[in-house]
Structures are given as C-alpha cells and as structure tokens.
Specification:
The structure is a homotetramer.
Chain A lengths: L11 H7 L3 H5 L2 E7 L2 E7 L13 H17 L6 E12 L7 E11 L3 E12 L2 E16 H6 L1
Chain lengths: ~150, ~150, ~150, ~150
C-alpha cells in the first residue's frame, strides 16, 4: 500500500546518513544526534580547514551552521518535501581553533512553508567549549518535484 | 629603512596568492582579478562540491562570498592590519549548477575599522551566467598583534 | 466582467497612496516615485525622529528600508496577493542627520513566491546626499485569504 | 574626585529613562526592566502602529528589537562610551496584533568593542503571548568623542 504523500516524516537513521555526502563529507562532517526540530554535527579540525591566520575558516563554520539547521528542519517535514536554504545571517564571535567543532541547530518557528532556525557552533579543545559563531536561518520546505525542475 | 606602520597596502601579487591556501585551496578556489576595493574568485564545480539534491552546496557559495569580500577588504588596508569577518547575511536565489562559480565582491563602505561589502556569486555554464547568491558582509580591520593574542 | 485572479497588477496610483497610512503616515513617509520593481520614498527629518545622540533613530531608517522594498515588490505581483516581510538585514553606515531621508528600493530577484530586495537610504542636506544604510530583504507574496486567516 | 574614564557603568535609573526619548517616545515605548546584559521594553498597540493589512507595522517591531538590544548593551559599557547599531537581521515569524508588544533583549557576546545581541518580540493579548519576531544584532561600543565628530 503506498504511503500517503505528506504524512510520513524522514527517519532519523536516513537523515543522519543523508547529512554526510558530497561537500559535507569532503569537509569531514559527521552526524552526532537528532530529535524532532534539532540536529547536532561535528567536524574534527584538520589543517585543510584553516585560513591565512591559522584559525578555522569561516566557510567551514558557516557550512556547518547551514547544513545542520537544514537537517534540523528535515526532521519536521514529510518525505515528499525537501529543505532549501532561503538565506541566513551568521555572526563570528571569536577566532576558532581546537580539536573539533560542534554545531547544534534547532528550529525556532515552523510556518506553512518557511522554517526559522538557529545554529550555534562551538570549538572544543580538551573538554572546554567556546561558542565561536551563531546563525539565524530561513529555510523553505518545497516539494521534491519543484526542486527537480530547477 | 623600516616601513612606517599603517602606511603601505598589501600588494596585488601577494593578495592573489594569499587568498588561496588552507580551506580555500581545499575547495579549489582561484583568484581571478583584483582592484582597490574589489576582488574576483572562481571555483570549478566538482562532484565533492555538491549537496544531497545534486546542486552546489550552499557552504561552497558562502565560503566564496565571505572569502572574496575579505580579500576585497584587504586591498584597502595597511599591511600591519588583517581582516576578520564580523558577520554576514546571504540570500540564495536559485539552486546552483554548471561549469564553475564566479564570485565578485566589492567594498561599499569603509569606516575607521569596519568595512561593509557585497558579494555576488554567479554560476556559469556554456558562457551563460546566473546570479545564484548575494551576500552583505561586515568586516573588521584589526591589528596583527590583536589577532595573534586570540 | 470579473477580473481573472492573479492577472492584474496593482496600479501605480493605488500603490503610491496605499504606502502612506498607519505607522508610515505617523512617521511622515511620502511616496516619491515608482516603476516596475522599484519604489522611492522620503521622510522630512523632525525632532521626533531622533535618538539619544541627536541622530535619526535607526528605527526610522529601517522602517523606510522595509516599507519601500515592500512596495517595490507590490509593483510586480497580482492584485489577489499581498506582500509580507519574511526577514531583512540592514547595515548602518554612518549616523544620519540632515533635511530629509530618501529610500530607494529595488527587487533584485523574483521567485515563485519569494522576492529578494535591496534598499538604500540616503540622508540629504543642502543638496548633498550620503548613503546612511543599506538593507537586503526577503519578501513573500501570499494570497489575501491566507493573510486574513492569521 | 573625578571618576576614572571607562570604569563606571551607566546606572539602571538613567538607562530606563534615557531609553525613552525622541523616536521611541513618539512610538510609545516604555522601559520595563533591566539587569546586566538584559533589557525589556513595551509598546501598547495603537492604531498608528498598524500597516495596510491591520497588523503592527514591521517598523515598530524592528525599532523595539534594535533599541532594546542597544540598551541591553548600554548596561555593560563604561559611561564614556555609547552604543551604535552596526547592523542587524530580523525575522518576522507571524503577523502581530493584540494589546501590546514586549521586547526582551540580551547580549550574547561582548568583545573588545563589538557586542552581539538577540531580541525577541512578543505580542501579548489577554495574557497569552506569541513570539512575532526575533533579531540578531551587532552593536559597537564607541567613545562619546568619536560620535560627536560625526
């Protein structure tokens, strides 16, 4: 019996695996945990993540903030929809270094087709953590067909 | 005779080379051109730049937007200062695919220590270009010493 | 004969008048000009627009940036839709004073239901103008019925 | 004996009064409470706060978000400095109506001269509250002299 469109949600198992492919796999991202409206990821800091001053490049941090919020959103939508990032804003609070980065994202508001999220990125070294960036993101839930047309 | 601090600007030759190292080298970024207050970069789109729907990951686009605006800012500051990204906001206008991405950044306002920039990212395929994202960025010009302390 | 839904656009006459009511009328906003995808407004600077340091309050500038972009968006949508602001980001480039403020807004991308706009706000004194703020805004075009339900 | 510059902080009494003048007084803003790094304000919703669809104008909400974050920042800086808004980003979560708006702002990171804040704006009607907007803001702490020059 076919599933009714729009009724089922993505499974945690699928999302944790789906979050790591293409660019995020290339960046070394791993899925840590998820619950409805929340997602956590990590990246072990390597030399190829750094910028000209020896800190983690803002692009790595922003990629985590965006991607993790996207998957926090995926936990709330039916399987015939996908999430696209409409826009986001990110503040960098201090230069990032350490052993790894952890990003914790949550959906703070779910509208009919727009989800608003927040992501906090922490640098972790020897058990101490510092918030290095915070982002506020607008996601759109769109039908799979509409994305394929583009 | 030593240079006076704060008088000289970074040379174009240095900046075009300096922009490609660490994470941006890992992402395949190349410097295309620069003039005072402007910088242009490119990335040839590869499979490891994509996300789950087969489009270029927003993180690649955001990395270009941020980094290119940073180097547009570097063209305007003395050699004893460096640029740090305070924050930015980016809108994704359409899914990105094609042969390569080009980012064109410019400084739209230079204050005493804050520079405001805009970056436009285009996807280019068979000679046609589409703007896929636009960002507005706030950069801080800070002394090299202050960065090293962090 | 009834108009087909979604076919007609708002008339310039209607929009220029509609833009000035409620809070914007209270703020002294006037419509200056419009063309498809663009709108221009002005506010004569009065004492009640200022903040604690004697400059125009950022809230006045942001109200103009948002409202003018909203009406630039209204020029492109059918009469059975209205514009709601999803979000925006605004940079304040310098403290604002002078005779009046002028805001020039334009739509830089029109998607199926999302419009991305830019607004520039200038302070004008004795014929000289300075850009005091720039904003990037995300607008949603939604049916009138959906707004009334809220 | 003169106070040492940069040592004393603004008094709660002064800030609560200082927050209401010029444009914010014109908008009907009142100071509700403050503690270090936090500030709360309210506006009783009147007809002149509305926009064309009968909801509170986004400009009123943004003015509160910005101003309240500004005064949350003022609680943390010495008396020879003032706060200027560098930029902010605000998401509007739902149309706002009701009896009054309340804005709760807090400083989430204080750097040497940059403070990052968050503001949440709630509409309150018959004791129920809904978050109608959330903003993330970048403030600069600058010397009074530097502002006067501008």
């Amino acid at each position: 019996m076919p599933k009714k469109p729009g009724k089922n949600k993505y499974s945690p198992h699928f999302l944790k695996r789906d979050a790591v492919q293409g660019f995020t796999e290339y960046c070394g991202l791993t899925s840590v945990s998820m619950e409805p409206g929340r997602f956590v990821t990590r990246i072990k800091i390597e030399k190829h993540h750094l910028q000209q001053d020896g800190f983690v490049h803002a692009g790595v941090i922003a990629t985590m903030a965006d991607h993790t919020a996207g998957y926090a959103s995926f936990t709330l939508i039916p399987e015939d929809k996908v999430i696209l990032t409409v826009e986001y804003k990110i503040n960098f609070l201090r230069p990032a270094s350490g052993d790894f980065l952890e990003c914790r994202a949550k959906v703070i508001n779910q509208g009919k087709s727009i989800l608003v999220c927040e992501s906090e990125v922490y640098s972790i070294a020897e058990g101490n953590e510092d918030m290095v960036a915070k982002a506020m993101l607008t996601m759109a839930s769109v039908s799979k067909e509409r994305v394929r047309e583009k």
